[in-house]
Amino acid sequence: MSVAFAGNSATTGSREAGPLRVMIVDDSVVIRGLISRWIGAEHDMEVAASLRTGLEAVNQIERINPDVAVLDIEMPELDGISALPQLLAKKRDLVIIMASTLTRRNAEISFKALSLGAADYIPKPESTREASAADIFHHDLIQKIRHLGARLRRKAAVASPPLAPASPAPAPRSPVARPTVPAPAVPAASSGALTMRPFSNQAPKVLLIGSSTGGPQALMALVTELGPVIDRFPVLITQHMPPTFTTILAEHLARSSRKPAAEAVDGEPVKPGRIYLAPGGKHMRVARSGADTVIALDDGPAVNFCKPAVDPLFTSAIDIWHGSILSVILTGMGSDGMRGGKDIVAAGGSVIAQDEASSVVWGMPGAAANAGICAAILPLNQIGAKVNRLFAGDRA
């Protein structure tokens, strides 16, 4: 397989036009070939290099100068978690997506990678011969590359605006045209241009949270501030994440919040004082069982390409708590949570969205904001305080 190298130094940063350059680092020739074909079929990305080990990636990154790296965890010579900080030391704005199979060890390593600067993670299917697993891997990987790469370029454009020339520059005699690929459409960042709703005049009785890309870091930061709410009200979270990974996330949430947090179990009562996390591979809903509210797990098809998805949780909660719902939509790709949020608002509840500047990807919260269903659009570091005030009786 041919390897393309960029002539410019890594210190020049990412290009603002042309396809996203992706470096694939995996010791499996099958996985490298598969990802290379998928990327080659996309108009807005290209394979910059296909490498077998982390050591090759570290040694060659300055010549390759990729925008995005898909980095396997388990490799000979230098594994992914060891290569990660070395790659970022040589190219600090590199978007790194960790790839791993669904084992507890790899899930733990993926969480560590996020704390070391990886932008995201993606689980690899156990076998690429399983069509459904390969299709999900294909869809999720391409979307992560596209959206995280586009965010990188927007940040670079803001940091380095083009300078107007002092005098007209002469046209080159032999111009080489390269297509300019537009970044995915992103909603307007200014909440001033968006329709805002008043908060519900009904006191909230439950907190619902939905998140995706960038969600684990956001959730762990948010729950540290929610102790007063968790003590008195149930908190239910859907994070787009596969099995095993949600087990680890629940443990991290318990440590961060110092409150009981666990994957939800079908049929268990929903009570104040604990955090319920949708388990990977299952939709989490709530339902009535006599006088109790219980967890109802659903093994149905994916919703918004996700399983678990946020919309099923949001919509099911209306039958239980009606308009006494406060929902928070955090960073993530796509629009999951927007339709459920509309239903919550129609029932009399409220929606808070994370703002663009503090989101890894402003897809889910941006969709809610642009739908005009939000009562507030806030930076992550202001959401916890606002939630606490609303549950304490503030209605503004």
TrEMBL record:
<dbReference type="InterPro" id="IPR000673">
    <property type="entry name" value="Sig_transdc_resp-reg_Me-estase"/>
</dbReference>
<keyword id="KW-0378">Hydrolase</keyword>
<feature type="domain" description="Response regulatory">
    <location>
        <begin position="21"/>
        <end position="139"/>
    </location>
</feature>
<dbReference type="Pfam" id="PF01339">
    <property type="entry name" value="CheB_methylest"/>
</dbReference>
<dbReference type="GO" id="GO:0008984">
    <property type="term" value="F:protein-glutamate methylesterase activity"/>
</dbReference>
<dbReference type="InterPro" id="IPR001789">
    <property type="entry name" value="Sig_transdc_resp-reg_receiver"/>
</dbReference>
<dbReference type="GO" id="GO:0000156">
    <property type="term" value="F:phosphorelay response regulator activity"/>
</dbReference>
<dbReference type="GO" id="GO:0006935">
    <property type="term" value="P:chemotaxis"/>
</dbReference>
<feature type="modified residue" description="4-aspartylphosphate">
    <location>
        <position position="72"/>
    </location>
</feature>
<protein>
    <recommendedName>
        <fullName>Protein-glutamate methylesterase/protein-glutamine glutaminase</fullName>
        <ecNumber>3.1.1.61</ecNumber>
        <ecNumber>3.5.1.44</ecNumber>
    </recommendedName>
</protein>
<keyword id="KW-0963">Cytoplasm</keyword>
<feature type="domain" description="CheB-type methylesterase">
    <location>
        <begin position="198"/>
        <end position="387"/>
    </location>
</feature>
<dbReference type="Pfam" id="PF00072">
    <property type="entry name" value="Response_reg"/>
</dbReference>
<feature type="active site">
    <location>
        <position position="212"/>
    </location>
</feature>
<comment type="similarity">
    <text>Belongs to the CheB family.</text>
</comment>
<keyword id="KW-0145">Chemotaxis</keyword>
<feature type="region of interest" description="Disordered">
    <location>
        <begin position="159"/>
        <end position="183"/>
    </location>
</feature>
<dbReference type="GO" id="GO:0050568">
    <property type="term" value="F:protein-glutamine glutaminase activity"/>
</dbReference>
<feature type="compositionally biased region" description="Pro residues">
    <location>
        <begin position="162"/>
        <end position="173"/>
    </location>
</feature>
<dbReference type="InterPro" id="IPR011006">
    <property type="entry name" value="CheY-like_superfamily"/>
</dbReference>
<feature type="active site">
    <location>
        <position position="240"/>
    </location>
</feature>
<keyword id="KW-0597">Phosphoprotein</keyword>
<feature type="active site">
    <location>
        <position position="336"/>
    </location>
</feature>
<comment type="function">
    <text>Involved in chemotaxis. Part of a chemotaxis signal transduction system that modulates chemotaxis in response to various stimuli. Catalyzes the demethylation of specific methylglutamate residues introduced into the chemoreceptors (methyl-accepting chemotaxis proteins or MCP) by CheR. Also mediates the irreversible deamidation of specific glutamine residues to glutamic acid.</text>
</comment>
<dbReference type="InterPro" id="IPR035909">
    <property type="entry name" value="CheB_C"/>
</dbReference>
<dbReference type="InterPro" id="IPR008248">
    <property type="entry name" value="CheB-like"/>
</dbReference>
<dbReference type="GO" id="GO:0005737">
    <property type="term" value="C:cytoplasm"/>
</dbReference>
